[in-house]
Amino acid sequence: MTVTPISPTTEATANAAMELEPATAGQSTGQSTARSDSSTAAQTTDPIAPESTLEPILEPTAEPIARPRRLRRSATLRRMVAETVLTAKDLIYPVFVMEGTGLVEPIPSMPGCDRRSLDRLLEKLQMVQGVGIGAIALFPVIPPAQKDAIGSESHNPNGLVPRAVKAIKAAFPDLLVLTDVALDPYTTHGHDGIVDEAGRILNDETVAVLTQQALVQAAAGADFVAPSDMMDGRVGAIRQALDAAGFWQTGILAYSAKYASAYYGPFRDALDSTPQFGDKKTYQMDPANRREALKEALLDLAEGADVLMVKPALAYLDIIWQLKTQTQLPVAAYNVSGEYAMVKAAAEQGWIDERAIVLETLLGMKRAGADWILTYHAVDAARWLRERP
């Protein structure tokens, strides 16, 4: 009920109308006249009476027409009207492969993740596929002895990545394998490209090597090659080379909007690929820029990319949404190592509910527009999703 004060003018008008009405039972005309006279006198002596002295009129409040809570009243109903649904099919699991046999090396800055020799990686992939994950992203740990200034090992047909791809596809033909096209795991200086005497990253010379790397990976059976280097024109050069060599079915997952981010630290620990000088800001994007991300994405689209990537994901949900709404290609988001490590560290301290935080975070990435999500949480998330009612 609401309380609506009646103004002096309204009260006088109401009293005047009462004088014209016949008296009702128990009420004489004289009483009505007296009330009218009394009200008129009050109006004359106190034309601006305080609201608190006025007699209120109670009126019923209209019931709300819309009640959004109706659709939240049970878990079943909430599931039926959910606008975004996260499943294991949305997830891609990044894995690290190393030379050797029987090796499993935990990564201290990424609890729950490890580097594995190929034989032990195949064992793990049995479990990965078993929880419903359909794709992996493969990253190599290259021994120091195989590194040089120009990343020559990156396009060795008998190198670690081609051998791993062949073995994985032989054991798990239905598992999609995405391979990283970049030089930083293979260079002594840790940069994604060839460096000149002045310390500058040479674009076109690097693209020529990346093209050879992509061809070797495609020949080994990679389903997607994923150039993560951020050199100009590399998507077009790789697409042309793949098609000319008959690998027209090999897709390109382009790291279209890869930012020069502080979130990559644990990943570089995993690959021992931290830059030995300077930083990557001359080729990776400035975190301040949004329009530039669309520019990069449209260039990659025009050059033949099949899927566009945003990396990192958590602080760049607006970029994911922008690429999703401004292009017609699928969009991938990389939930990177620093994002993963922060959640794991807080969970180990008991400060957060890891399961709830991970599933909410991944759902947010999908809600922003991600069709694929690369995440180190993939195996745990897939299990948790299975356990949901």
Automatic annotation (TrEMBL):
<dbReference type="GO" id="GO:0004655">
    <property type="term" value="F:porphobilinogen synthase activity"/>
</dbReference>
<keyword id="KW-0456">Lyase</keyword>
<feature type="compositionally biased region" description="Polar residues">
    <location>
        <begin position="25"/>
        <end position="46"/>
    </location>
</feature>
<comment type="pathway">
    <text>Porphyrin-containing compound metabolism; protoporphyrin-IX biosynthesis; coproporphyrinogen-III from 5-aminolevulinate: step 1/4.</text>
</comment>
<dbReference type="Pfam" id="PF00490">
    <property type="entry name" value="ALAD"/>
</dbReference>
<dbReference type="InterPro" id="IPR001731">
    <property type="entry name" value="ALAD"/>
</dbReference>
<comment type="subunit">
    <text>Homooctamer.</text>
</comment>
<dbReference type="InterPro" id="IPR013785">
    <property type="entry name" value="Aldolase_TIM"/>
</dbReference>
<comment type="function">
    <text>Catalyzes an early step in the biosynthesis of tetrapyrroles. Binds two molecules of 5-aminolevulinate per subunit, each at a distinct site, and catalyzes their condensation to form porphobilinogen.</text>
</comment>
<keyword id="KW-0350">Heme biosynthesis</keyword>
<feature type="region of interest" description="Disordered">
    <location>
        <begin position="1"/>
        <end position="70"/>
    </location>
</feature>
<comment type="similarity">
    <text>Belongs to the ALAD family.</text>
</comment>
<dbReference type="InterPro" id="IPR030656">
    <property type="entry name" value="ALAD_AS"/>
</dbReference>
<feature type="compositionally biased region" description="Polar residues">
    <location>
        <begin position="1"/>
        <end position="13"/>
    </location>
</feature>
<keyword id="KW-0627">Porphyrin biosynthesis</keyword>
<protein>
    <recommendedName>
        <fullName>Delta-aminolevulinic acid dehydratase</fullName>
        <ecNumber>4.2.1.24</ecNumber>
    </recommendedName>
</protein>
